[in-house]
Amino acid sequence: MKNFMKLSMVLVAAALAFSSCNCFKKMAKEREDVKLSVTPEILTLNNGIVAADINVTFPVEYFDAKAVIKVTPVIVFEGGEVAGTTKYYQGSKVDDNYTVVDAKNGGNFTQHVEFPYDPRMDKSELQLRAEIKCPSGKCKEFTLVNLNTGAVPTKEEAAVLAGDDAEAKAALAREFGLNSVSRYADVYDDLVFYLRTLDHPQIILDEAGDLVYEAFLEIKAAWNGTEGCCSWYLMGADGFKAKLERGIEFKTVGFAEIRSRCGDKYNSITPPEGDERRKFLLSQAMMIAQANAPETTDFRQIARQSNGSLRRVHSLITKGEEA
Predict the structure, then answer these.
(1) What is the average pLDDT value for the chain, to the nearest integer?
(2) Is there a contact between 287 and 279 (Cβ–Cβ < 8 Å)?
(3) How many CB atoms lie within 10 A of CB 85?
């Protein structure tokens, strides 16, 4: 279950820019032909992990046969940063075991990255940092390159990177990184603006009982931003009601407001108990079976055998089709 968090990334169609190293001079001149993208554009939290796929496309006749690029994705936030798995690309004449980019054909590559979640990531940026290596010139060993300008470190900057001042080194590395250009707040503002331009929009959130606490606060904020022009409907199993009531009992911020915005009452489509409930479930199973079972199948018998369980209806239809 994906849970919203205040983290977003929209990489512009910028390019890796390199200069001052022999094998990268031509690549630097044609840097705007390299395309970068990320999926999903708005990063999400899933079971304590923030994951994304970074895609890079090198055009035909672009990648130098003797070049090696080391690319590291980094999530930067106030007070720290978390680096993802490094990806290496090499030209066709490099004697190594990295991903080969053929100079004649170019190539499209996807790098999957995962970061363990840190609460400080609520306000953060995703950067790409690159180091370059050529068989001759200034970059015989991996050298950090400024992805925003294409320059390698000056003598003074190189001294900082080689020094013992961890804070200064981190600050310089961040300057050299290619930043995202969008923030969660921007995405939120765009969403609210868009909803307010629609004619009677309606938001229906299913499985609301599975949402984490932070997601309820985001729903509350979005609800406030669209009050009077957008209707909201939250639905879930019995656990959803229990979760709200428990939050209200312990005076957890946001839960009373959510229930108030839902009209301070709960509605159930299915009758709670007794013969009325049994008849409703059987009727529902009958309609589902009739709509999905093959024409030669007795859908009434499927409904009766299911005892009103829609999952059982599905299983009986599937078994009948396999027989």
Answers:
(1) 79
(2) no
(3) 12
d(CA 81, CA 147): 18
86: amino acid identity, one letter: T
From CA 60, how far away is CA 136, in angstroms rounded?
24
HEC readout, the chain: CCECCCCCCCCCCCCCCCCCCHHHHHHHHCHHHCEEEEECCCCCEECCEEEEEEEEEECCCCCCCCCEEEEEEEEEECCEEEECCCEEEEECCCCCCCEEEECCCEEEEEEEEEEECCHHHHCEEEEEEEEEECCCCCCCCCEEECCCCCCCCCHHHHHHHHCCCHHHHHHHHHHHCECCCCCHHHHHHHHHHHHHHCCCCEEEECCHHHCCHHHHHHHHHHHHHCCCCCEEEECCCHHHHHHHHHHHHCCCCCHHHHHHHCCCCCCCCCCCCHHHHHHHHHHHHHHHHHHHCCCCCCHHHHHHHHCCCHHHHHHHHHHHHHC
Amino acid, single-letter form, for residue 2: K
Residues 188 and 4 sit within 8 Å (Cβ to Cβ) = no
For residues 248 and 276, give the distance between their C-alpha atoms in angstroms, rounded to a whole number.
31
Measured in whole angstroms, the distance separating CA 59 from the mean position of its chain's CA atoms is 26
List the end-to-end C-alpha distance of the chain, in Å, as a whole number: 34
pLDDT in tens, 125-136: 778 887 888 887
- Give whole-number Cα distances, 237 to 9, 242, 246, 252, 268, in Å: 33, 9, 15, 21, 10
Radius of gyration of the chain (CA): 28
Q: Distances in Å between the alpha carbon of 142 and those of 12, 71, 135, 138?
A: 25, 11, 11, 10
What percentage of residues in the chain have a pLDDT greater than 90? 15
Per the model's pLDDT, the better-predicted residue between 180 and 54 turns out to be 54
